[in-house]
Amino acid sequence: MSRPHSDPTTPGNKHLRHLTELLSAHGQPPGAVAAAGWAAAMAAAVTESAILDHGTGGEEIAAVLRTVDDDTDAYWNSALSTNDWKSSTPTQVAVRAGHVAALSGRAFSSNPADTRASWALAVGAAAAAQAVAESNAPAHPTRAALMAGTVDEIPDPVMVIDAHGSRVRTADGRVLLDVSSGLYNTPLGHRHPAPAIAMLAQASSVAAINPFNSVTAIADRVAERLLQLFDSPGGRVVFASSGSEAVETALRFALSVAGPTLHARPRTFHGITAGAAGLSTYASIRGPLPRMVQIHHHAISEWNAPGVGVVEPAGIASGRPPLSATEREHLQHFRSRGGVVVVDEVLSGLGRTLWPGLTPALGIPADIVVVGKGLANGIAPVSAVLLTAEMIGRIRASGPLDHGHTHTNHPTSLGAALGCLDALDGLDHDPTKLADAARDSGLEVTSLGWLATIAVPATPRDQLVRSLSRAGVLLHLPSMVSSVDRLVVAPPLTTEADDLAEMMRCLANVVEGLRG
After folding, report:
1. In this predicted structure, which of 13-22, 349-358, 367-376 has the lowest mean pLDDT?
2. How many CB atoms within 10 Å of residue 233?
3. Strand 236-240 relative to strand 175-178: parallel, antiparallel, unpaired?
4. What pLDDT score was predicted for residue 4?
5. In 50-203, which ranges are E strands?
6. Closest Cα partner for 264 from 281, 249, 252?
7. Rounded CA separation 147/29 (Å)
8. What tens digit of pLDDT does each residue of 441-489 get?
9. SS3 for 75?
10. Nearest one of 396, 68, 32, 392 to 235, comparing CA atoms
């Protein structure tokens, strides 16, 4: 049965036509702030209708609209005033919208659905107005209080003030091509809406919990999604905040059942926390912490069970090929004798190499799989530890073991993760695009999906940073080496063909300059 057409004479339709006229008028300058204010006013109206007898009689709506009028007046009279209003009046709109979001809780018991909608609308409006304020008066911190990812001062750090897709804008006005997807953690490109929308929707209901006594539906949804993608029926998932933390959690589980011996391949990186850092052969990564377990760095064929073996399957970033069929057979033999295999897919998983990851794509035998980096597209810190059903049984049989942290299974981050997974699942995941674009530009690459390396003459790291910057490229270089002999290329999976070609041309110019 078709839905009947609404009566154009009803009050709702009259109000809608009037609102359309008003919004059309505000589509003229100054526009953006007015639109944010109107959104906040609509959020206030939703709250008013939801709380019925306990409303403010429209006072909150009027208060929001007064801040919009203040901005509009300042805009049209800007010739007679200073430019301070460009940040001050949008800030006033943002503050008022934040107040509307706080008031939405009045309908928590009577109308939870409208409460969530009002809160999300008001928070979005506040963020929009604040974005205008910050764009009009951007802060340029001096970095005096900030320590970056290394204790050494970074020469000529890039001050990023804006980012969209595969491009970032710096404080000095340059636009750079981001060929590293941040730190390999924005596979959808900067400012993709899907993770942000899903995160805000989740935050409108449950933003945080106590992971030791509470669970949420969002955690179950993302966990089930990952277990399906990685073909692990009956398994369980623990969510952490970073790849390092996830590897640490995986080691805690694995060592509890397989003894105190760890095996890892040389020249690999698995994280910066104590246990994860101990897997590295780089001194600056290991740091001064004493080793609490026996760690052996050797080829997979030399791993002896019982024990725990940790492997990063792509290998490309560390200068080796992906796991071979022979190495996969060795891993299965290691497991059959009681060893536990942890596959670190923090970098390689979720489409960076093959979709959904190398573990299912190559049939890598694994007891635990760790994913991170692109799980929430960089909008929230989240990673995941996937445990097989058999591994869960072994852990529980070994005795009590706590593993949680304050932000374990964090709902808001998992909202972003669900939005990101939905968007990633909709991509075509053509593993040849990056290699084809590189070769079209004359570059010789070693690649697997959207992860590639380019061999270059050994070059001091600082010199290479300057060469890349002059070429208009932002590319991550490892901090644990002073001389770099390969570039790791990992642009967003959503990069358009023209942008990808431009990235490769820029890199080709850098390589040509280094080779003289």
Report:
1. 13-22
2. 8
3. unpaired
4. 44
5. 160-164, 167-170, 175-178
6. 281
7. 41
8. 999 999 999 999 999 999 999 899 999 999 999 999 987 788 999 999 9
9. helix
10. 392
